[in-house]
Q: What sequence folds into this?
């Protein structure tokens, strides 16, 4: 079955009956048996009850195989009312090449049961891992919201002198059995979870086991994961033996960097070439899951994955006399798992280039990112530098919250019938600016949809007037902040509501309302974002109208957010200024009423109305 652990945080809920739940994991027993460092068997018996149609995908069997991993046995049953209505054979599996991967030996194996609800499906299968075992399959039996687990277990059986490492939500029972060490994790009657906003990381709530051999063999190579230094040493050892650039590429490097007076100029020139002449493909399986393709192969084909493109740029920089370090990182998690130096938790590779004034973290899979910018997937993350003498765990600097400033400005020409012509400028910085990379290359309808998405009115005849970025202005200094600014105008036929001799104009042109859950809060609230949003509106009062009532200016403050909203007049202009400041914070679940009160006050303030009256 699919093992899906969402990036959303999760919360435990009370247990319901089998038929009240949309689905139930009745049993999930997984066992890893290590016969040798290059011969591992992974056997699973799992049984799930499907009660509701929206849970049918959970009953699917989906497994990826490659040259180092195969399905050695597979069977199953579908039951209704306690009777077997179908026996599933290995020949029932649908197998096709994995089109998302470059490797031609990777396959996806699928079975989707068909039966009238409710039904139970059970799978029994064994996966043979051979020649390449750097990590064991993860144990995450909780598969979806509101789905409880009646019983689940995970067993690793390995020779006593075969050391394993693990990161788990609870400690195993450890026993000795005929010269083997046996690690057993078991859970019973796990009640399930619901999704709640602003929750802790899933890894801190859901039962899980991540495990790996400390010393391993992988595709004819040997390595250790006892520390990041050792893991990095292995990654360095499997770099392509033929890492030299083709002669044509050597010539290209010298042509591109001829006349460059600094390492930054060389980096900019080579980074630009990479973006124009290569494309990204995914290569995740086999030795290709950890080792880069050779530079000559990338130059020949014109494509590569994150490892290959990063390694190619490293060699190009080396040819130009610029030093750099190959980097592995998890783009999903800022902090690596404690006391667990398994390379399996990393999902991306990039490059670190130390310059005279700054260290540049270079994203090679998308060279449209501004050079010098630490994008959202790496800023503040722990990464491993793969150096000649091994790996080194370091932190990529995050950006201070006071640098994360987004702003909207709008001049609103209001008419007596409630219609309006609006001229607006939207400015975004740092991660908010990422969606504006190659913005002008989008289709007109996509640009219109993007600019109107959060407006509190229907934007008719929306037209972009100008677009400006500083994406190419990095000069090698750490204070470079990517910024995009777009100006546009549109017409709204009903921005304000006319009633008698009055116009009722919403205070906000942009929807920024907050929501809260009605039920009891189950887990603490975690706020991880720091930054400021400002909204500045100038509303021109129609001829013949005066201000009848302005909303009250407000200041609201909590540990996680401050709101300042003010209203004033200057001649025939009503000015609205809103500043929203977000803070990193944590609130206990018992304080959720405090959050609710803030949301209520926030929405009341931002949903207020300006009233104009005919003179």
A:
């Amino acid at each position: 079955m699919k093992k899906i652990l969402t990036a959303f945080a999760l919360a435990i809920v009370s247990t319901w009956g089998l038929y009240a739940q949309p689905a139930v994991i009745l049993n999930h027993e997984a066992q890893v048996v290590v016969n040798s460092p290059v011969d591992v068997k992974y056997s699973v018996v799992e049984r799930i009850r499907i009660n509701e149609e929206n849970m049918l995908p959970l009953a699917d069997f989906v497994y990826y195989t490659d040259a180092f991993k195969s399905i050695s046995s597979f069977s199953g049953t579908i039951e209704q009312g306690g009777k077997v209505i179908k026996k599933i054979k290995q020949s029932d599996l649908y197998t096709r090449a994995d089109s998302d991967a470059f490797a031609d030996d990777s396959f996806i194996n699928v079975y989707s049961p068909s039966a009238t609800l409710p039904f139970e499906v059970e799978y029994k299968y064994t996966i043979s891992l051979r020649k390449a075992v750097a990590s064991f399959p993860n144990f995450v039996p909780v598969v979806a919201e509101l789905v409880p687990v009646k019983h689940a277990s995970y067993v690793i059986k390995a020779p006593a002198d075969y050391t394993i490492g693990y990161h788990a939500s609870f400690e195993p029972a450890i026993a000795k059995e005929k010269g083997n060490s046996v690690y057993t994790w078991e859970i019973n009657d796990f009640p399930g979870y619901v999704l709640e906003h602003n929750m802790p990381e899933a890894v801190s709530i859901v039962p899980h086991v991540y495990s790996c051999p400390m010393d391993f063999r992988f595709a004819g190579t040997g390595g250790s994961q006892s520390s990041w230094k050792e893991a990095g040493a292995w990654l360095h050892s499997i770099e392509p033996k033929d890492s030299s650039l083709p002669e044509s590429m050597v010539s290209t490097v010298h042509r591109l960097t001829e006349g460059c007076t600094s390492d930054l100029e060389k980096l900019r020139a080579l980074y630009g070439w990479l973006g124009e002449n290569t494309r990204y493909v995914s290569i995740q399986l086999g030795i290709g899951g950890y080792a880069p393709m050779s530079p000559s192969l990338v130059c020949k084909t014109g494509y590569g994955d994150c490892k290959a493109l990063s390694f190619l740029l490293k060699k190009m920089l080396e040819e130009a006399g610029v030093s750099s370090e190959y980097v592995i990182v998890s783009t999903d998690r800022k902090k690596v798992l404690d006391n667990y130096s398994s390379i399996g938790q990393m999902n991306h590779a990039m490059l670190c280039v130390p310059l005279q004034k700054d260290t540049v973290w270079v994203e090679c899979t998308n060279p449209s990112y501004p050079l010098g910018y630490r994008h959202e997937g790496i800023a503040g993350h722990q990464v491993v530098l793969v150096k000649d003498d091994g790996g080194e765990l370091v932190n990529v600097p995050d950006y201070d919250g006071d640098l994360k400033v987004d702003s909207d400005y709008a001049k609103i020409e209001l008419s007596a019938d409630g219609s309006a012509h609006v001229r607006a400028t939207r400015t975004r910085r740092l991660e908010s600016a990422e969606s504006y990379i190659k913005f002008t290359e989008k289709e007109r309808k996509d640009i219109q949809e993007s600019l109107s998405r959060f407006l509190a009115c229907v934007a008719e005849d929306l037209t972009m007037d100008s677009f400006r970025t500083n994406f190419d202005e990095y000069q090698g200094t750490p204070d470079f902040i990517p910024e995009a600014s777009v100006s546009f105008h549109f017409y709204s036929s009903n921005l304000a509501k006319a009633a008698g001799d009055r116009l009722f104009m919403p205070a906000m042109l942009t929807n920024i309302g907050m929501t809260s859950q009605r039920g009891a809060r189950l887990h603490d609230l975690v706020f991880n974002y720091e930054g400021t949003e400002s909204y500045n509106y100038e509303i021109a009062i129609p001829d013949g109208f005066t201000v009848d009532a302005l909303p009250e200016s407000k200041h609201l403050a909590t540990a996680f957010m401050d709101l300042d909203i003010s209203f004033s007049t200057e001649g025939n202009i009503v000015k609205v200024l809103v500043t929203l400041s977000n803070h990193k914070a944590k609130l206990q679940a018992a304080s959720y009423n405090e959050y609710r009160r803030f949301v209520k006050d926030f929405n009341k303030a931002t949903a207020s109305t300006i009233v104009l009256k005919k003179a």
Confidence is low (pLDDT under 50) at residues 1-19.
